[in-house]
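Continuing from the previous page of notes. For each protein in this section, the sequence appears first, followed by its structure tokens. Read the first protein now.
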Amino acid sequence: MYKELCSLITAHNSLFFMKKHDFPRTECLKSSKLFRKVILEGHSVFQHPLKLHFMITYLDKPASVSLLLAGFSISKRKHPKATTRNLLKRRMKEAFRLNKELAKETIATFPNYHLDLVVIYQVGEICNYKQIEQALIKCLQKLKNQLCSFEMNTI
């Protein structure tokens, strides 16, 4: 009885903590038009091996959808094998999933604004997860600093 209760509590706690670090489909940036728009019209920060493009837009009314959309891309020219691209994309998504609170805190300081992110893997070599995660954290910190220094009229 005691073991069952302990396992039930552990399962409940793990489900409780999993909610904080989810990455639902509603937060994925999928539209190729929006990808292009963020890359061409938005701003960017770089931290080896990642480049983070971002665009912040004003919303007329409060949004019922997520205030943050993120997309991930890897050059087919630098990584011709799909398995390699998928591996690196999984690593980037996992790093973002665990650290997206930095981006959410940033956009929360600007009410009625929406943030679109595109993370691009820039180098031809395969980096391990730790390098990708550290680079993504630094990119998100640079993003926060850059957004805080911008005037909202110029964004």
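Done with the first. The second protein uses the same format. Note its length before scrolling.
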Amino acid sequence: MMINTDSKYSRAFSEVIFILNSLDKGLYELIPTAFIKLIKDNMDEDYVVTKEHLNTVGMLPETKAILSLIYRDFFISDSARDELKEADKEALAKEEKSYENIFKKDAKNVSEESTDLDKNGEENTQLIVKKEEKWYKKIFRKILGFFGSSKGES
């Protein structure tokens, strides 16, 4: 089954197949043939992967992710898999909690800064119009002020 993949994922599938082909036969047989077929169908056949290439350039991050999924789903025992899933849940919960704290801090800072409330207790979000005196009126007012006239002072 072909799926629409980005070129980086097609290259990652090529790297995964290269690595899987170098596994022991016992480990290779733990992976379902349908999964291997899916990877082979979607790999980039023009992308040449060698051991030297992987040693010098390294694996793509997508390759590492796919290999970690293969390890978690096919190679480890059920109890170890459950432990990994529990650790993933804990890490996700910590991450979500840290995001909540960030948003609470931001909301607290905003509420401390915005003390300008209208009659209903809602934040006043109206624009303030600042009338600035024209430059020639400023000059005229200063000249009149120089001569002591009370007309220029307003």
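What the second structure shows: Residues 7-77 form one domain. The CA atoms of residues 117 and 124 lie 5 Å apart. We return to this in next week's lecture.
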